[in-house]
Amino acid sequence: LPMAFRDVNARRHIGLQQLSSLASTGRTFLGPVKSHKFIVDESTNQSTLICSAVRLLESLDLSSAAGQLLNETIQAQNKEFKTGMSTLLFLVGAWSNAVVECLQQNVPVSAIVSVMSEGLNSCCEKVQCLQISIHDVKKELCSSRVRPSTFECKACQVGCDSLLNPQDLLYFQKHVSAPEVIPTSSCSHQGDDCHFNKGLVSPLVDLGSAASLVKPGSDRSSSVIPGSGVIVSSHIKQKLTHSRHFSTLGKSRFPSQQGNFQGYLLRPSADPCECCDLGHLAMALSHGNQTGMKLLQSIVAYQQERADCRGSSQLNITEIVTCPLLGLPESYSCVCRGFVTLVPPEQATVIKQFKDKPLRILLVDGDLTEQYRHLGFNRPQNVRTILEHPNLEGGRAGGTWLNRMLDILVGFEVNLVLVKGSVCKNLLDRCTASRILVIGPVPRDVLCAFMEVTGAQPVTYLSQLNPSCVGNGAQAGLWEASDGRAMDLGELVPVQISVRGLHLLTAVLTTAVASRLQLLEDQFWTSVYRLHHALKDGKVFRGGGAVELLCLSHIQVLTEEPVRPAKSGKEFPGPWLAAAVAEYKPLVLQALASGWKRYLSVVMCNMAKAPTELEACALVDHHLRKAADCGSPSAYILELFRRGDVLGGGSGPFDEHGEGLKVYDNVAAKTEAWRRALDLVLLVLQTDAEIITGPRRNELLNSPLSSEFMFL
């Protein structure tokens, strides 16, 4: 037995070491101020900018068993919540190091597993007092009204027939050096086209585009913001150039963008306060992720207007798709009604011929290839297959299939085909030559959206096609940027497909930097799912480090509790385990707390709230002492949150605006990230222990006899 202990301490736990090594690479992803990483593909020499744990693990060597378990855990969190992966990754590393330190002090494995699991469950119950319902959050946001963010949010939602209220006018004059801002009594644009250009929601205007509305030089004539009913004097340009309220001012790379703005904004909700609250909630949940925030606020405004009629306030993510577009500045990002996707130039030529014409649409729920068979397909028995996949290039069998599929489409006068899976290249070329537009792959949610409004019924094979499966009323055209120009970016051309009554919205994410394309899309979806889960749960955590700080305070209380007499029973399988738990409980609880303390310290260092982790830990300890002296740690932390001063001077560590903006966390995503991180660490711990000592010897190591040999 003494040799076994020396064996454990000498070899340590390789799995825990691997977890710690892998997790250490993602510490810069914590908090609102993240340090991005460039991932270079050695085979293509192409680089990608990443800022998430999911993308990081895709580029790491995960051949080890611990690495594969870590990847599966991160993927499970991403699949369910789309957020919390960076927290999960960091806590896996922090708790792995903490467990290794416990092992070095000869703490039995069973005691580590029991105390850590019990401590986490107790903390999850304790932090429920920091939960707040969405209804109460709306009240707080409506009462606090952080002015810079409020103006920015409302500016994104002003419709063509809406006017700025007097409070907004006063705020605009006060904080933007007060050029002439005069509300007009009427709007020159009337009718539905004021908000929906040809049935499509026009591009969202970036606030930085306000500079392009002003005429340069000494010309002091007034310019009208289209769709806002506001006249802005031309000398506002010099004021806005250095305004802290706008982050994307400056000259556009495209001259036509200056002075030629023609986009309309999304119409606000019938309840402006409701839209404002949800927009603020999205911002409070963003944790510094401002990418696409204005787009999300516009989507919320549009869906909230429909939700008022349905009596529901949920964010419908099935009606949201993205289209990453390379080659334009990020100020061209917008929200469009309908489905925006990229097609080759040959298909764009066909779309130009479809302009303003109703199209007959077909939906294919599968691959459009000869080899495709649906899931569960059973091959006929007693049939011998001579040739599984015939040559489609010039083979007679392949040519017969192509001709038959094309004849079916032409016979039913189909103009547009949306395919869920892949499309045969030869069939695609033949259809394009016959002026039939085939687009794939298309998300399933898009097929469902078109099915509802066109009457089309999805088919698995074209041979199943009948007249009732073909829908009508679809329209297709080239996607137009905010300056009204149709974009032709070379290899791929953005096109827009819509139908009257279609509620599908596409967030077009533009950038001129190829390595940022995937990053922008990931960050946008993270913001969407954070708001979605907050509305789904109906509650959020008060954030900014408040939840972790309360966990640390609660663990202090648990540690200082008197040790109860060791009793065996239902909780413990024997008196020896109960005795070990009682003896090592304070030490293991401190190991559990070290994970959250390191989490807070790293976030503060990433935000430059503290120069070193040591000073950050000292600040955390200072708050813990004050919370303990207060007598009610939860009340103390709630007061810190109310003042926006959870950690650090002036504002919490997640308050990137420095204006006292309250920060919130998702309840289920955060607690599930904790549980998954600890479960993974404890699983690897127990597995390593069995590998090192064997299952039977591991039981002996955790027996009361083991403690006697520890001191021999």
TrEMBL record:
> Which Pfam families does the record cross-reference, listed alphabetically?
Cpn60_TCP1
Question: Which Gene3D superfamilies does the entry link to?
Answer: GroEL, GroEL-like equatorial domain
Which Gene Ontology BP terms does the record give? chaperone-mediated protein complex assembly; photoreceptor cell maintenance
Q: Which InterPro entries match?
A: BBS12, Cpn60/GroEL/TCP-1, GroEL-like_apical_dom_sf, GROEL-like_equatorial_sf
From the UniProt record, which GO molecular function terms apply? ATP binding
Which PANTHER family does the UniProt entry name for this protein? BARDET-BIEDL SYNDROME 12 PROTEIN
**Protein name, as recorded:** BBS12 protein
Where does this protein come from, organism-wise? Tachuris rubrigastra
Which gene is annotated as encoding this protein in its UniProt record?
Bbs12
